[in-house]
């Protein structure tokens, strides 16, 4: 994992992310068993539910990051376009781990989405 850690982490965070945040996630990655990481990558690569997006009936919040090289914005747009009741929000100044890099904004957005669903119910 050490051999690929810097490349992977560079996809997870923007260059402006706090160093301690990046270093902590890099350490976590390096401690991950290589076979488990590879199996997870294979599973995600094989997972394709595009043909079922129209079946989603829940109000859906699709969150993307403008600088995400691991899951580019066009993937999020595809999901948002395919799910009938989807809304796409794009975080600037964030990469693949936008929920970590922009934790406060991410939590606020998700909390508002959930609150709105609860109020409607």
Question: Short description, anyone?
Answer:
This protein has 121 residues and is mainly α. It has one domain (2-120): Alpha/Beta hydrolase fold, catalytic domain (Rossmann fold). The protein is built from six helices and two strands, in the order H-H-H-E-H-E-H-H.
Describe this structure in words.
The structure is a single chain. The chain is mainly alpha-helical. It has one domain: Alpha/Beta hydrolase fold, catalytic domain (Rossmann fold, 3-Layer(aba) Sandwich), CATH 3.40.50.1820. It contains six helices and two strands. α1 crosses α2 (19-30). The longest helix is centred in the C-terminal third of the chain and has 18 residues, at 103-120. It starts with a helix and ends with a helix. 14% of the residues are buried. The mean pLDDT is 95.
Approximate helicity band: 55-70%
Q: How many helices in DSSP terms? A: 6
Count of individual domains: 1
What does the average pLDDT come to?
A: 95
Q: Structural class of the secondary structure composition?
A: mainly alpha
What amount of the residues lies in strands? 5-15%
Computed CA radius of gyration, to the nearest angstrom: 16 Å
């Amino acid at each position: 994992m050490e051999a690929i850690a810097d490349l992977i982490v560079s996809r997870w965070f923007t260059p402006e992310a706090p160093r301690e945040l990046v270093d902590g996630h890099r350490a976590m990655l390096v401690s991950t068993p290589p076979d488990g990481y590879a199996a997870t990558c294979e599973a995600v690569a094989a997972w394709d539910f595009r043909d079922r997006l129209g079946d989603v009936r829940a109000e859906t919040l699709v969150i993307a990051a403008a600088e995400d090289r691991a899951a580019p914005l066009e993937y999020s747009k595809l999901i948002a376009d395919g799910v009938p009741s989807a809304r796409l929000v794009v975080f600037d100044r964030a990469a693949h781990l936008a929920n970590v890099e922009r934790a406060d904004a991410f939590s606020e957005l998700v909390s508002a989405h959930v609150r709105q669903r609860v109020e409607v119910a």
